[in-house]
Amino acid sequence: MTQAKMVRHAGRLGTVEGYMLARVAPEVGHQLTCSDAFTDYRSWCEREGLAPFRETEFVRLFEVLSREIGIPLRQRGGNLSFMDTVVRDVASSVSTAADAG
Question: Given this model, what pLDDT does residue 13 score?
Answer without folding.
Answer: 80
